[in-house]
Amino acid sequence: MDFSFAAFSKSFFHALAGSGTIKEAASRYGMRRPTSFARRFIAGERVEEAIEAARAIEADGMLVTLDFLGESVASIDEAAAATRDYLGVVDAIAAAGIGRNISLKLTQLGLDVDRATTVDNLRRILDRAAAQDFFVRIDMESSAYTERTLEIFETLWQQGYRNAGVVIQSYLRRSEKDVRRMNALGARVRLVKGAYKEPKDAAYQSMDEVNAQYLELMRLLLDEGTYPAIATHDPPMIEATRAHAASRGYPTGRFEFQMLYGIRRDLQARLSSDGYPFRVYVPFGRDWFPYFMRRLGERPANVLFVAKSLLR
Ligand code: FDA
Predict the structure, then answer these.
(1) Which residue of the set 188, 190, 254, 279 is catalytic?
(2) CB of 128 within 8 A of CB of 90?
(3) What is the distance between the alpha carbons of residues 135 and 118, in angstroms, rounded to a whole number?
(4) What is the pLDDT of residues 237-279, one digit of tens each?
(5) Which residue's CA lies nearest to atom 15 of ligand 1?
(6) What is the pLDDT of residue 248?
(7) pTM over 0.85
(8) Mean pLDDT of 188-203
């Protein structure tokens, strides 16, 4: 991939993600019918639709994590509402009998508004989740939140919350230190390349550097980490992970692979049938627009797909 074009496309779609008018139009058409364009990447707006998608994935022998989409709430009331919604999602998943695993973002719980409130909100979700044997993954947002996210995670870890894990992004220059920091705790890490538009001083800008650090961190996590998740759709990253595990004689259950709903389904099925624990990240909810824009920005060919389905 031409990385400068990729960088341009990332900025373009991040800018669009902030546009209220486009968001409104997309929200009106994007999910309306089963064939609507956003449904390729988003399981639906309601938890029942996500549960149905999860059942189909599990029927194919794969695991799931459900993400009730939402981010950047601007008031304590909105953060409280998001927290209540998440508690409802936990209960709905438990009642449905699907895999007990969720992903969430701290700006959804109020990180832009008040840190102490965010910690309280997260603690409420972790308590409800722990009582029902859930695992909670704290997604990683832009580098403005990295340190605060890890600190909040560490605080709760020290308080005995062990049903949670974090995400580390290989494009950030700081990430080797962060992986070592999480490995020392014994915390579960999901390794991704990173989806946000980041400045040069915080993040590598060339795909070669991002990939090189991905491979280094993957080895560090497999060798010294606790049940890491290797989350990528990139075949060379996946092959290198398999090769490293094989060269060390690691059993397939030492780590898991993860991919996003609707992306590289062929690879998802292959890895799962090769016997690796394999988890699909299933996003749903009414606030799907920023997530959807990040997916478009990663792969401009997706824009053609959207344009075609709009014409249809
Ligand atoms: P790369 O972008 O190099 O893509 C490799 C290949 O994958 C492409 O050539 C294409 O075939 C396919 N592909 C990738 N993206 C595609 C798309 N949008 N549409 C169609 N095909 C696509 N990021 C973050 O910053 N914080 C987080 O918490 C998470 N969480 C997360 C969970 C899981 C389970 C996954 C898989 C990913 C994330 N991410 C994330 C997103 C991640 O940072 C990254 O943006 C995407 O995974 C794309 O990077 P790849 O590793 O797939 O490689």
Answers:
(1) 190
(2) yes
(3) 18
(4) 999 999 999 999 999 999 999 999 999 999 999 999 999 999 9
(5) 298
(6) 98
(7) yes
(8) 97
For the CA of 234, the closest atom of ligand 1 is: 5
Domain residue spans in the chain? 43-172+256-287
Residues 50-101: pLDDT tens digits?
Answer: 999 999 999 999 999 999 999 899 999 999 999 999 999 999 999 999 999 9
**Distance from Cα 231 to the centre of ligand 1, integer Å:** 8
- Separation of CA 214 and ligand 1 centre (Å): 12
Q: Regarding the domain delimited by 43-172+256-287, which CATH topology (the fold level of the hierarchy) does it fall under?
A: TIM Barrel (3.20.20)
| Single-letter residue type at 222 | L
* Residue 2: predicted pLDDT: 41
Q: What's the burial of 195, exposed, middle or buried (CB within 10 Å: 0-12/13-18/19+)?
A: buried
Residue 67 appears among annotated catalytic residues? no
180 has catalytic annotation: no
Ligand 1 pocket, residue 211 CB under 6 Å: no
